[in-house]
Structure formats: C-alpha cells, structure tokens
Write a structure and sequence with these properties.
The protein is of the alpha/beta class. Helices cover about 40% and strands about 15% of the residues. The protein contains 9 helices and 10 strands. Helix 3 crosses helix 4 and helix 4 crosses helix 6. The protein is globular.
Length: about 230
C-alpha cells in the first residue's frame, strides 16, 4: 500500500481508486491482521473496493458449519489463518469439526465475517473487468456463476479470444505477471515468494508496482484494447 501511495503521488493529479482481487487470507502469518486492515480501509475510504476470492468463500462456508469446507479450509492454508486469530495449535489439532466451528465463531470477530460476506464478485471499469479467478469464455457476464468467478482456471487461462472486456485477475500464481492479449494475471504468490504485485492503469498506459522491483515500468496498452 505504501508503494501504491508513493507511485500515485509521483504522477499527475487524477481521481484514483484501488481494487483488491481477493484471497486476503490463508497461508501467510497474519490473515487476521490483513482482513482487519482492509476492512478498516474500506470503511474509511471510498476509493477502495475488494473482491471475494475462493479462500474467503471457503472460510465463510467453514464458519457456517459445512464440514467438507472445514476440512478444505485447513488443507488450503486455513490452519495458519486460525493461528492468526489467536487459536491454539494443539486445540485445533485435537478438535472435532463441530468444535472447530465453535472456535471460529468465538475467535473470528463478527465484523470481519460481515465484511467478508459483503465482498463483491467483480468490478467493471471502462474496458476492464476485475475478477478474482476469471470468467467462463463465451458466457455473458451477467450469466457467470460466483464459482467460476472465484475458482476457474481452464478453459479461461488458455482462451485466446476476446472476453468483451480486458480481464485483470489473480488466483493462479505465476512467477512473473502473466500478460496475455485478453487478460493479465497478477498473483505472484506473495505468501511464498514475498512478491506482492499491483497493476497501475491510466488511460492508454499500464505499469507494475510490486514489493520487489522498486522501479515501476510503464507499458502502453495495445491499441486493440483501447
């Protein structure tokens, strides 16, 4: 966020906004802190919007008592998330599914759960569609399912045709920003690489801001996308 603010301040005056693509939680050391920081930012600023990722979906389903999603949550990095909410590792290891659900209800603040339930599925800005995972090719946006928007990989990733909008997404990790003719994937696996990546967009330009490269590169959007 500091790098984004620094970059924004170095450019000309403009009305700017931030869209977070989801997966705020799991695997990292402080899921609770991340959710609370984003919750407070969204409450205090009108220039930030946040999407729901598949990891938020899993947490909410587990919190609501779905036993299959409780198990999936623990396998998908939720164990670390529970530790960040102050839960005891030994207690987690020995708890039944019902006990885990009760522990989540006691330890995860209700205002955070309410915030996660309020997250959006997608955002459209001009020629761009911002979404967590992607969309099903050939299907109108209003017919896309939440599951595809939060979970899809194929056939979205290999689709070379137009999606109607240029898609900016996360979900699928790549070592470098995955730039294609119809989409850009910016999930660079921060939890394991330390590289958290943002994409700046203004007019006919786009550029990368991340926690590794301290020299943002500006790149023109191909004319076909204007």
């Amino acid at each position: 966020m500091a790098r984004i603010d620094e970059d924004d301040g170095s450019r000309g005056a403009a009305q700017t906004g931030i869209i977070l693509l989801g997966d705020l939680i799991d695997r990292g050391p402080d899921s609770a802190g991340v959710v609370e920081r984003v919750r407070q930012m969204c409450a205090s600023r009108n220039d930030i919007r946040c999407l729901c990722g598949n990891h938020e979906e899993i947490l909410l389903g587990a919190y609501d008592g779905d036993s299959d999603l409780v198990r999936l949550f623990l396998r998908a990095g939720g164990y670390e998330a529970l530790l960040s909410y102050g839960m005891d590792a030994a207690a987690i290891d020995h708890a039944s599914i019902a006990e885990l659900v009760e522990m989540m209800e006691r330890n995860i603040p209700g205002e955070q759960i309410a915030f996660l339930r309020s997250l959006e599925d997608y955002v459209v800005e001009g020629d761009y569609l911002f979404v967590h995972a992607g969309i099903r090719p050939g299907l109108p946006l209003e017919q896309q399912t939440s599951r595809d928007l939060r979970w899809i990989r194929q056939p979205f990733l290999d689709h070379g045709g137009s999606h109607g909008k240029f898609v900016i997404h996360g979900h699928t990790i790549s070592e470098q920003v995955d730039e294609r003719a119809n989409r850009i994937g910016i999930d660079t696996g921060a939890y394991r690489t330390g590289r958290l990546t943002a994409l700046g967009i203004e007019g006919e330009q786009r550029w990368i801001i991340d926690t590794v490269d301290h020299h943002a590169n500006t790149k023109e959007i191909p004319s076909v996308l204007r």
